[in-house]
Queue: 4 jobs
Job 1
Amino acid sequence: MLVSEIMALKGHVLYTVGPQHTLQEAVTTMTELDIGSVVVVEDGKMVGLLTFREMLAALARVGMNWREARVAGAMMAKPVVATPEMEVEELQRLIVEHHQRYLPVMDGDTLLGVISFHDVARAMLEEKSFENRMLKSYIRNWPEEGEGQDSQAAG
């Protein structure tokens, strides 16, 4: 399975904030949309990724006032990224090695979306479910002994 296939299942909706926005604005956006990350964009380009994890770490580190603190001070400036051609096994390795639950998906300089650990798990579950249904269908339609031999002898 490729990252592009997971993105097709997930969709390409992208939520962004600017680095000048406050953490309060980011929290409000993420809470209202029930999402765990937003891409930080400036002048049409991704400059970082903000998740609740980065926000909490920034608040713990410097005791920021989240109503006034800027996204720029909390965001992950250089997140690990995935590509559409990447195999899911490589994506999983990146997620585990870098402890990054959300990865922006980039096609060159073009941001296609963000893929999460949850998206990967859901896609893998759907793939296994599809394979299971196909195997059960195959077994149900298994030719009885002698069925296939008669048609081969006639042909």
Job 2
Amino acid sequence: MISSKPTECFLDHDQVEDFDGRIYVVVGNTHPPNSVIAYVKYVPTERSTLWCRGSVCYERVIRRYGVDSVLSAAKKLQEEAYEPSLGVSVPVVKLNNVATVYRPRERFEEILRRSDDRVELDVLIAFDRVRESSRVPSWRVGVGGSIAIGIHNPLVSDVDLVVYGCREALDVVESTLNSFDRVPDDVEAARLAGMSRTYRLPIHVLRSISAPYKRLYMRDRRREVNLMFSSDTPGRHGESVLVPVALAEADVVVNSADCRSLFYPGVSSVDKVIDLKIFKIIRDDYVNLLKRFKLAKIVTYESLYSFPLYRGGEIKVRGVVSVEKPSEDLVMTIGTREVDSYAIPKKLSSS
């Protein structure tokens, strides 16, 4: 039975620690009753590592991002549960096993009051650069990653700023980029080469679709900065249910500048379906609905594709087509384990 009541207030980019000291990153703003959707990222270890808090150090179990890498690591170390609202199994942490919750905005408020090391000072400098060109207030900003949980290393840690809210996200994306440098060319080349191996896409395609608000750089500080975005409203579990019906490819026209595409999971409205090709049926009993209803939106669980969907226009997509209940709209989901999926501009799809 799926609850229709608001869940515990966990937002995307929150982190939770269990009673064994494992630290998990929260995924999205909608969570099932009595648990939170989150993947394990750090586990305590007896050896010295780059990530330590006091006398306790942590191994980073997520070495590469990408859905396959994250889910593979999580599957070995934590529980999974089938989530009807998504139509897939997801990594979860039971609420009765959550010892501590780390919230980016609370941590940012601490750093505003007092910065204890070089990287925490760089958090403030990065925020000042964001604020120079946007109207985002401090209470709409948080700090994520290792800094949020206090295991950062001032020599190597990046600054991850989380911007909350639709208007604030649009403001920052459209105004802030000139406040920062881009990462050095050699660093960017190595990043794109690694991404090409992970996503099996050509480097020139990855360069074109990579979000400019990722891998920003403060050259004078020698620090990378990532901007991330989240709705500040918790979801209501059970408002909709996805029933996976088929694997498909489609050419669609996506509405541009939708702030939801910047959040996680990214959501983009489809303005027009140019072509829809089904290549595998999952549920025979729902096949007729593929003809009766239009593809209404794209949902991506792979953040790589958030920026091309934000830009909109004609997009080539591949993923799982589901029927959303109760609306009975068709939804294309990208970034689940059922199929190698993507969302890239049509002009790049044949290159």
Job 3
Amino acid sequence: MNIPFLAASTAGSGILTWFGVWILRNHATQLGLIDIPNERSSHTRPTPRAGGAAFVVSTIAVFLAGAAISHQALALGIQIVLTCAMFIAIVSLADDRWRLPSRVRFAAHLIAACVVVFGAASLVDVEWQDGMVLLLGPLGIPASILWVVGATNIYNFMDGIDGLAGVQAVVTATAAAWIAMVRGDDMVALLLLIVAVSVLGFLAHNWPPAKIFMGDVGSAFLGFTFAGLSLVVGGTSRGTVPFLAWVLLLSPFLFDSSVTLTRRVLRGERWHEAHREHIYQRLVRAGWSHRTVTLVYLAADLFAASVVIAHFAYGIGSPLIAVPVATLPLAAIAGIVRHVEASRPVTAG
């Protein structure tokens, strides 16, 4: 990959995003994009939202321009994922503005997931170790649809405090781009680096204390894009960025949501209703600042990414080792929240 071209493309996406978010911040009131705190909110003052629209536009625009300038043909799978991700972003922006019924959002997620799975790629087999693969057979299609819809919503659920969803995106996209570049998939690497730097431009406004929120338009776009790409470039054992690598890179969010869902089901609660029971929310309720919680998750992200890059880019270790090692910080986070809650009373909410 041409390094000056790569640097110019990624830097341009970050600058465009920064200016786009700045414009949205200054016109949020006129656009009706103000987040008013309620009993489930982790913030206490009205704040502009939907800042993620800026990195959605800059990511798509800069990547397509870069592909055109470099005369690179886009694989059909990438075209489908980006088209569906833009559709998800548009529906989610409407939700940020008018609060669409949940069934409308779910229908949009399901339709987009089906288009990706039937039109681009699905899980056929999952590479495990030394040539061993898990063959999914007829389970591959429903598993793929569930994965895309689930990852999209999980990413949305986890966007609840300043900076959290942004740092997860930057680390995930950068690590996956690194693996793609080492394995020779330059266009996927370019796309992911543009995503990473675009989100960095947004984080300049969203780092605690946030001046603007990502909104569903940003979180749903990121979750869908990562899930869709994981099928296109990792849905088979011949993929350039294996599916297992994506799961481990997203493991802090997947772990938090899985633990939260399990706790709510075991306690007989309505798991599908809005709540404040995620691990990151429990830490905030126990008195931790948004900055501290985000930094804890960032540390987990970076640790998982280093293990994933070492194994999937350079062949160090095996999945039998990489999986438990990469997830060690998650057990630590679970232990932290239990200790914090035990040592300091948690307010009701």
Job 4
Amino acid sequence: MGGARLAPDGAQLSQRRQQLNTVEVFRTRRDEAERLTPISCDQVPAGHRDCDIQIVVDPTVRYQRIRGFGGAITEAAAYTLSRLPERVRDQVITAYFDPAVGHRYTMSRLHINSCDFSLENYTYVSPDDRSLNSFDLSREERWVLPVVRQAQTVAGAPLFLLASPWSPPDWMKTNGEMNNGGKLLPEFHSTWAQYVVKYLYAMRNRGVPVQAISVQNEPAATQTWDSCRYSAAEERDYVKNHLGPALHENGLEAVKLLIWDHNRDLVFERAREVLSDPAASRYVWGVGHHWYGSEEFQNLSTVHDSFPDTHLIFTEGCQEGGVHLGQWFTGERYGRNIIGDLRNWVEGWIDWNIVLDETGGPNHVGNNCDAPIIADTRSGELHYNSSYWYIGHFSRFVPPGSTRISSTDAALSETAASHVAFETPDGSLVTVVMNESDDDLRVEIATDHERSGSERSGTVLELPAHSIVTVVKK
């Protein structure tokens, strides 16, 4: 991972750093009823206590600016919410988007046309309407858009919305159906680009502007649900010759365009193919990725090091295989992936469905999955999975505009912990540390103030087996 050692950000910020003397610690652990629970810690001179791990946070070594955290509002999620009593529905939106008592989400992902987490295949035009004159977004007003508007109201600001297509209409594709892969027919490249333009304007006209789009969800996969394949060369040429120009010619050049939107394993190969072409890269703002099949986080740093002006966004991840109520490994999967991504230049992290029903759906091809909140539509009861709490250890304490800073460790035992650190816009230092092992750990977090002339100060805390903590030093 590249990184530049930078000078302190001016006298005022340097003074604030020296005055950091209030420490708050929040912990979630598997074996006790702690969920983002405030706990006590010790303040000592750094290096003077018996600890298993010593972590040094250095605010003078700075990396990427954080854009935020969020979750997808799919038709399945919105439909599930519609089946709940109003007060319960409000609880879910508050739990994610409320800046005072919720997860403080500032991002969300939407689907253009249907996805697997829709009630059925659908598009916004009549069959074979090559003119696109029948384009109609009214289906999204039934479930999805009311939830988006409520989320933005609760958040108190517009969300950063990323919209992704899973498939063009069936008549635009080589296999004649929305499911099971296939490709976009060459004669419809321009038509499909104009379709996306119409979607963006229709969303804007409904008061829900979309800030970013991806070219295609999972373009390297033939799925049994809505899917469409693009090779790297095909995605490059579609961006260069059709989608990019269509956005610019229609006054939509401010909409951020992401490529790939698929797994980490091949993220660099796809980025290299598209971004090495100046005619294509001029239209590309960022690269999206998912977590399925790979935790090769270093591939993201390879993209950054090769194309440092390109923004990296995590756009989808969930626990597959239906609902996993009460399981702890799901939360640890989230924590591990969030830390791995953020330590490798990722700026924004968007979970998949914000809520699903008791079956892990609805999903029109039976690809049921888990979500951080599961709503039992029969009883109206909400189940908060471990993944919900693990996400909150980041999203509640690392607001947009925060900067990732250096955190290094010296393990004094055979058991390691993973960690990542940030400086927030108000000068607070936030460190998240996770212990996936079966051993209890004692951890010291020392803030390196040597460059400003003061001694390092340490925070010592207990990190039990299968736990995560967030340390906020103000």
